[in-house]
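FORM 12-B: Structure-to-Sequence Request
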C-alpha cells in the first residue's frame, strides 16, 4: 500500500478525524474516498465534506469503496456496534481503525480476533488519550529506568456533561440511546488505555464497583436509562502492578488524570490539555542535580515531528497521533500498540468489570484471546446491556439494581 485510501463511517465523531485526514500535510499520504453517515441531511453531505461522496447505507458505502480502491475504513459509529462492522470491512479486504470500544460482548471479542487472523487484514484501536503531551511525558519517564519497578497506576476519565446533553440522548429517548444504556465500567479505554501504554502491561484479573447517582436517577421519569455516576475497577496487571481506573464517570471533576508509582519515583499529571506534570523521587534514589519534587509543563511540540503536527489536534493532540500511527501501520507495517489483542483485552475488562460490580466486587479473570481454550470459553458469552433494533436481547442491566 502506497497510500491510505480510507472511508469514514460516522461523520459526527469522525468529523474531528476528517479534518486531520483531509489536512494539506496529509494529502500525499491519505485520501478520503467516501463517508457514511445516517444523519445525512445535517452533517453527512458533500457540502460539509467536499471531495468525498456520502452515503446513508453502510453496504452501499462499502460497495462504492470496493469499486474505487478504498483500502481502509475508520469506524466512528455507535459505541456498542464496532465489532460487526469491523468484521464486514476486513472480510471485504479493507484494513480497520476503530473507535472505542473494540467489542461489546466476549463473543464479539473472539470473532474480531479470529477475523483478523483469518483475513490477514490490519486492525488497530483509535485510542487517543495516551498521546496527550503530559501522558507522552509520563511514558518517557516510565521508560527512563529512573522509577524502578512499577507498583501502582491509576487513570481517571471524567466526562461530566451538561444536563441538556444528557436529556437529549437519554431522558428523551429512554432505553434506546447507547449512552443511556452504558454501564459505568464500559467506557474505560480513556482511563485504562494510557496505563497499559505507559507500562506495556495487560490486565489479568479485574474487580469492579459502581456508585449510584441520586441526581441522574431523579432526572429520569421512567428510570429506563443508566443512573450510576461512577464505575471503578482494580486490575492485576501482567507486569505485577495494581491498576485502578474508571469507566466514563459523571463525577464533578473538570479533567481526567493519571498517575504512575514506582519503587524509586512517581509521576502524575493534571489532565490531557494542561500539559502539567509532577515528578517526585524517593530522596535516596534522586538523581544528582534533579529536584526531589518538581512540577513543570510540556507541550506537543516537545515530542518530535508528530508532536508538532498534533499541537492543534483534538483531544490534546491525541487524534493527530492516532492518524499518524495508523499511516505508519497501514503503509509501513509498524505495529500499533493497540492491536486487536490489547483492544479486546480492554473490552473484556469493561464487560467483566461490570459483572463484578453487579456481584459486589467479585474477581474475574480476563481471557487471553491468543489462547484457543480461553476463546472457546468466551465464544458463547453474549451477555450485553444493549438491546437489539427491536428493543430485545439485553441480558445485563445498565445500572445497579434499586430496591
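FORM 12-B RESPONSE
SEQUENCE OUT:
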Amino acid at each position: 500500500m502506497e497510500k491510505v485510501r480510507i472511508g469514514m463511517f460516522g461523520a459526527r465523531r469522525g468529523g474531528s478525524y476528517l479534518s486531520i485526514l483531509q489536512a494539506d500535510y496529509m494529502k500525499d499520504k491519505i485520501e478520503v474516498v467516501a463517508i457514511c453517515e445516517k444523519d445525512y441531511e445535517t452533517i453527512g453531505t458533500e457540502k460539509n465534506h467536499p471531495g468525498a461522496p456520502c452515503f446513508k447505507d453502510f453496504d452501499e458505502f462499502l460497495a462504492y469503496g470496493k469499486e474505487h480502491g478504498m483500502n481502509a475504513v475508520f469506524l466512528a459509529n455507535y459505541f456498542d456496534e464496532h465489532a460487526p462492522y469491523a468484521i464486514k470491512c476486513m472480510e471485504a479486504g479493507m484494513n480497520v481503525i476503530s473507535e472505542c470500544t473494540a467489542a461489546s460482548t466476549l463473543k464479539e471479542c473472539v470473532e474480531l480476533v479470529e477475523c483478523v487472523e483469518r483475513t490477514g487484514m490490519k486492525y488497530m484501536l483509535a485510542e487517543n488519550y495516551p498521546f496527550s503531551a503530559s501522558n507522552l511525558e509520563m511514558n518517557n519517564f516510565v521508560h527512563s529506568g529512573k522509577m524502578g519497578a512499577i507498583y501502582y497506576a491509576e487513570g481517571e476519565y471524567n466526562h461530566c456533561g451538561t444536563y441538556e446533553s444528557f436529556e437529549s440522548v437519554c431522558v428523551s429517548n429512554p432505553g434506546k440511546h447507547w449512552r443511556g444504556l452504558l454501564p459505568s465500567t464500559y467506557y474505560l479505554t480513556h482511563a485504562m488505555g494510557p496505563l497499559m501504554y505507559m507500562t506495556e502491561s495487560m490486565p489479568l484479573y479485574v474487580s469492579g464497583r459502581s456508585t449510584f447517582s441520586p441526581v441522574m436517577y431523579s432526572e429520569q421519569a421512567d428510570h429506563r436509562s443508566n443512573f450510576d455516576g461512577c464505575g471503578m475497577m482494580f486490575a492485576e496487571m501482567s507486569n505485577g502492578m495494581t491498576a485502578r481506573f474508571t469507566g466514563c464517570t459523571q463525577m464533578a471533576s473538570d479533567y481526567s488524570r493519571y498517575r504512575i508509582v514506582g519503587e524509586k519515583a512517581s509521576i502524575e499529571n493534571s489532565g490531557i490539555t494542561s500539559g502539567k506534570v509532577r515528578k517526585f523521587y524517593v530522596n535516596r534514589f534522586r538523581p544528582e542535580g534533579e529536584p526531589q519534587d518538581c512540577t513543570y509543563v510540556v507541550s506537543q511540540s516537545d515530542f518530535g515531528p508528530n508532536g508538532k503536527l498534533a499541537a492543534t489536534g483534538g483531544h490534546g493532540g491525541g487524534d493527530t497521533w492516532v492518524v499518524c500511527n495508523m499511516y505508519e501501520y497501514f503503509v509501513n507495517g509498524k505495529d500499533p500498540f493497540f492491536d486487536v489483542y490489547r483492544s479486546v483485552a480492554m473490552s473484556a475488562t469493561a464487560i467483566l468489570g461490570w459483572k463484578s460490580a453487579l456481584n459486589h466486587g467479585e474477581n474475574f479473570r480476563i481471557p487471553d484471546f491468543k489462547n484457543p481454550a480461553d476463546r472457546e470459553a468466551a465464544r458463547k458469552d453474549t451477555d450485553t446491556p444493549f438491546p437489539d433494533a427491536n428493543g430485545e436481547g439485553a441480558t445485563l442491566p445498565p445500572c445497579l439494581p434499586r430496591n
